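Notes on consecutive records. When two proteins share a document, each keeps its own sequence and its own token line. Never mix them. Below: protein one.
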Amino acid sequence: AMTAAGVEITNIATGTYKDANSNVMDGVSSNTVTTTVAQVGGVDVAPDSDAKTVEPQTTTQYGVVVTNTGNGPDTFDVSFAESGGFTGAYTVSLWNDGNGNGEADGGDTELTAVDGVYSTGELAMNGTFRFVIMVNNTDIAPDADAHVVTLTAASQFDGTKTESPTFTTTVNTASLTVTQVTDNSNPQPGENITYTICVTNGTGAGIAHNVEFTNLIPTWTTYVDESILLGSTPLGDAVLDDPTADAGNFGGTPNTVTVQLGNIAAGGSVCVSFTVLVASNVPAGTVIDNDPVIT
């Protein structure tokens, strides 16, 4: 262990001898030499790096511990810089971590900087200062947007003693794809067509929140009542503002099938199907297009 600054170390040399007749003589002692241990600075910041993947418009927290590894009391200046080539909008703030759990929670307060520099206050030898870096994506940042905070803690006693860990926040957005199939690709007038539309969120993507499916009823067709299925679950046609309604709805101008799909996790898939009746007077060769919309 390091010896604390200011400790006095004393040394006295002693000697014994015999005369020519082998008689033991009184011992002799040197003068006392006293040395005082000088102070040296030192700092450690843990962790030395951290990285998290988050959804857009969320707040990320990084717990940080600054330790005085010098041998005397010292105060440390803490500052940060942002980098990474990010294009989203972010805010960064530092918060006290009163209970040391690595999160800013009840009772913890935001730290105040002076000219961009925060202070740990004086720390005794081996003393620690715990705080939290809070990174908030305030807009819908694009997928894989990487925001890097480089933190620097510097000893006031010896400014050459610094530590500079990095904290990388990468935004992971939803990645939805839509596929549809039909059970009747060459319908005759008066026949039904059932469309099945599946919405899939990519593996490793962020959660897709509050996904909504809408589908205008194709020209030359009419909707078959109560034909909406969410997976294998039948949905009613009641309007969405009806408190007794389920996630499905048919209506509006123009007539539209609407289904609330909710949240779709990474790698998840949700399928909707509904049925239409082909008009009896549709001309031969007419192409009936169906265009679902996912928002």
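Protein two starts on the next line and is unrelated to protein one.
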Amino acid sequence: YFWYYALKMFDSDEGIEKIEFESNERKYFDDFVVFYKKESYPKNYLNNSISKEFFQIKYHVRNTELLSIGNLINKKYINARTSILERLKELNKKYNPDDIHYIFISTDDINPNDELYKLISNEEGQISLETLFDNTTNRSKMGKIRERFANHLNCSDDELKEILTPFRFKKGMTKEDLITRINDKLTLHGFEIIKPSSNLNKYCQLISKWHSKNQSTITKEFIIKECEDEGLIKDYGTIDNFNNENLNRMGILEFFDQYKCTKNEKEHLLDYLCTIRVKRVIKEINDLKINKKTV
């Protein structure tokens, strides 16, 4: 997941300034942290400007568990000394919850029979505070959840609401889908792709190298230099000249990702787009000929 977000630094409209991973200075949700440029802070559904996003990844080769309310307060779920909610509470003491997201990515599905399924919004993956704090008594379903969370954190309802506000849940991708998306970005920006048939992933090796050297802050310029040293740059022109054509290609790739297009669907859509483009060029040529005749 680090590389999926690191490559977004090469997309000018993403506005990412730098990424930190496994920094010794940070605790909790520290698999990596994305920092946005001040002039490019993204907005969330509350219209708050977001300065940084903290990520915690929980990946399973096989889906053996469904995510439930209990997992948020069970420290064993993340194999740690503190639960997800306890970590959110500690982070809330240090950072302003209005301009930060704490994103938990898990390959586990949410149990459709658990109340958490009703609480996680499809908008940004946030806990729906309107649903949880529905003005019902502690005897109601939502009231019991509020009480359970508040007792676990030893906090009031108002404090609980503040603690939960920056939390986001995202469903993790399969390894194959993740590599496909990363390869789309690598191709787009002129880097060598990750070969699915190879067990040797030079991009993962770079992360291990940086970690061993305590190099936790990663910028676009640093990635270019490191990838150049490893012979991973394929097209310098693409990296140095990210223009409108690149943006159009990026839009198409993101369309493929969003709608999970099959290989055949991608080919048909590209053929269709090429046809439209050719027709447009022919029309422009004909218009040019007509204009020349009238001059």
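For the record: DSSP finds 13 helices and six strands in the chain.
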